Amino acid sequence: MATVESTEKRVSWAELFFDLVFVFAITQVSVLITEDHSWAGIGRAFVVFIPIYWAWVGTSIQANVHDLSGPSGHLAIFAVALSGLVMAMGVTDAYGDRGLVFALGYWAARWSLGARLFLWGTDLRSVSWNPFTVSMFITGPLLVAGAVLDSGPREAVWVAAAALDLSTLTFFRSRLKGMHFDAGHLTERFGLFVLIALGESVVAIGEPAATSAHLSLAVLCAVGAAFVVSCSLWWVYFYFAADAMRFALATASVQLDVTRHVLSYAHLFFIAAIISVAVGMEATIAEPMRSLDWGEAGLLYGGTAVYLASFGYTRWMMFHLVSSTRLVAAAATLAAMPIAPLVSSLAASAILGGLLVALNVVEYLRVQHAAASAS
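Below the sequence we write its predicted structure tokens.
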């Protein structure tokens, strides 16, 4: 592993405060999925989540490559946070009366930081195109334009805007490939967003139990099983993968490729998958002896499978190696999903927890064996 230099950038208190807004935003996305977890509902929630995520990604990357430690930098971060709060306020009715609130919040978020970094003292005729300026001049207005349309056309325009935002890191690769990133700071930032999502799973476990009229043994067992799932998801990322991501970014000849594939793209699916699992968990706590419906089972098991399979993508992009244990575990999770609607939600949660614990035990033993062989 690369040694850690004492001069590496640290996550600032302003960035941590900024993250608190996205705790609320994640909760609102979870509410949207809870209200409608049909395929169409999940798709609409994912489309809404992308601008929220992309606003966070853009701000975190710019805080990594620019010095935002002074008062003006902190004020710019706070302005993005306020815009993100406005976005979050519009999430649950984004496809209704608050679509314009959501869209204007995103556009304001991009201008809040982008104007300071890219436009101050710049002739607009000579503005350089990059992911930030595309969102300021194209995708932000697209979201606003979509917000004034009826349902159907609105979704189509928003999907186009989200796809355009996500494609900019690839489209501008040749222009941006010389960018240098502080590996420790940037990977810590993305790890913190994973923690935000995992925090939503803890809320999903605790809230229904705390508001339950009778804290029965079944509810307590369901809490324990769901918490094992949450801890296991943490273990998969932070015990095994986080250091590998940091090492890959620190040693990459083109750091943008790791930032693009492993951090920006893969973490979109990591976090979306954890949100999905959290919504499924809430159903298991609320009524532990009731069987999950197919939608709830899909959120719980399907979200876990997407989470695990995404590590296959990151490992290949980092080292061109196959993450066999996690891909097998993802397949096993999908194979077990049809069982979930046939048993109690408590049992379904316990089965999923058992699969994840087994994965972590196998990987731990493999790492220990490899270390013993190398010594």
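DSSP finds 13 helices and no strands in the chain.
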